[in-house]
Amino acid sequence: MVLEDALLQEQLKKARLTKSFDESEALNIFKNLNTLTKMEKKNNFCCIKQHQLRSALNESLPKILQILEVTLEKLVLRMDAEASVRSEEKFRDLQNQTNNNTINVYNSRKKPRLGIVADICEEEEEIDYMSKRLMLAHTIIDILNTIEAGSKSQVIKTTEILKMAILSVKYFYISLNEPSTTERMAAINRVLVLLQRQCRARKSSRSACLRELVEGALFYYGYLFGQYEDPPMDELLIPENEMIIVQNQKQSFGPNSNRSILHAGVIGRGLRPENALAGELCPPEAQTLLLKALEMCCSDIDRQVAIESYSTISLLLVEMVSTDVMYNGLPFPDEEFTKVTMERDLLIRRAFITSPILWSLLGFISTHRPALCFSSVLLRALCATCLHQWRAKNVNKFETSNASGELMETTKNLLKILAMGQLLPPPLSNLHNIIEHFEPQEIALLLKECVWSYMKDNVPSPAQFHVDNNGLQWRNSQLCKIPPQYVDTLRNLMQKKLSKLGQHYYQMFIMPEYVSNGMSQLHNVPASINPTLSDHAIEI
Prior knowledge:
Blueprint: H1 2-14, H2 25-42, H3 52-59, H4 61-98, H5 116-146, H6 158-176, H7 181-201, H8 203-220, H9 244-252, H10 257-260, E1 265-266, E2 270-271, H11 284-298, H12 303-321, H13 342-354, H14 357-366, H15 376-392, H16 406-420, H17 431-434, H18 440-457, E3 465-467, E4 473-475, H19 477-480, H20 488-495, H21 498-524, H22 531-539
Antiparallel strand pairs: 1-2, 3-4
Helix pairs in contact: 1-4, 2-5, 4-5, 4-6, 5-7, 6-7, 6-8, 7-8, 7-11, 8-11, 8-12, 12-14, 13-15, 14-16, 15-16, 15-18, 18-20
């Protein structure tokens, strides 16, 4: 009954039927419940009956989840609104810099505000109310951990399982936006315990948590990870009382009139920012915490279950990034077939540009082999677009490769991920260290003759990996020896640049031959001639 009253109170505040700055009874209720639950769990008070309060709270779990849902919804709405304002201001600044501050039509939207003192007071009350809501969310999650909600020993309905998984992930993203470092890490640790307990108890919870985490990072909460959002292009910001002749004059007059007719911008709004599509780097802390949350959801005592969880992340990336339901298989087709899927490949490439967290997710699954094999379509799209773009640079013979450009960074990241996932064997696995020393036509030749040809003839399949004694997946050493037709092109190009790549050439080609020849000589020595040497060879 108390929880029902608290839920009604929060719902009324959500509907603004009561004043938002009224003292919330729900916060006091859950603080008291949290204190009593911890006292009962410690078993230090003889006056408290054991397991009585925790059993009552587990029976009232649906009501607790409803209160948590109402609490988190308002926090998410405010977080999204603040992110939208920051994105709009950033795009406006970029556009003003592009047009040399000659056009600033966005300032026309700003209207003089009346009653500034009242607005400031209302804003302070809203901030105070949001801080209480956030504290209420922290307290509810703490109670769920104290009563061990979602554990395997509890009987919970499927709807409650899915709701708790969705709310846990939503609370995780809210915690990433916590301004205080101490409170942010405390909230993250709190929700990681809740996620791990749910995912280890039920497979449905693990699937729901992984989907919500990946989908939230790519779509709903991408601004937390440096995602670039396209500005609204259909909003021309034309006043209703402005005549058509005045709008036409903006096209033929002004400092940017000669460029407006070339469709380099929007009439009356100036040029588009050139570097707007590049996006930002993913914040390291947010990236680390997201990968840690995914690791908690995938961790399990059974190694096979953990491998399936990482493969689930890989399949989710294909589902959410690839726009086509066809041609999503594992094999690499012939290079000519990329002309059929070029539009799909360009959309996938754009997704990696606007959402830098995708590189982190691919790197995460590449370290848990063989999950990367299921993202073959993404690797294929990145390789095909880079290959065609490097070929296009041959049109301008005087253009050199930019070591810090977006194309070079994409190529290096792709080669790194292929090497980490053991999809490229040595010496091709070291290609990302030397790719910047080649010319554009040489890079295109390496991508086609070495990378694409090898991936086409050796399908990235989980069958190529075997399990060692520690339960880890590794590439089969017998299949790892690469035929010469895939490395001759790289060898010849490196021999032309020995002054720059001499050390890399020795590590990639000369030293492995010495090691293999030395091992073969040790194995060929008869045991009767030198038994000590033979025993040493067997130990090696």
